[in-house]
Predict the 3D structure of the following.
Amino acid sequence: MEENCGGGQSIEELPTELGCTGRHLRRVFVEEFHVTPVKYLQTCRLLLAKNLLTDTDLSVLHVAMASGFGSLRRLNDLFKKQYYLSPTALRRNAAGGKIRSSESKVALG
């Protein structure tokens, strides 16, 4: 799951690949990792997005797609729930608070 978290693979496909039911996979996964497979995959995708935001110049939309979120809205929603800030704010904080010229118009205007 970690290796392909940005691939956009649906969690519903995993039990079929493993030859078990979704219910069995969830039960075993929770016993082993103490989180559901969906939560685990979301965390992997969030960590990938966080790394891409801080280490690359990809647009936030491209980060969302490369991380397997499927939409910018989904990335924004989960990011704000988990980290209490937007992806753009994380990028700005990682850059030492520097605001790019395009962002300063939004922030100041």
About this structure: The mean pLDDT is 83.
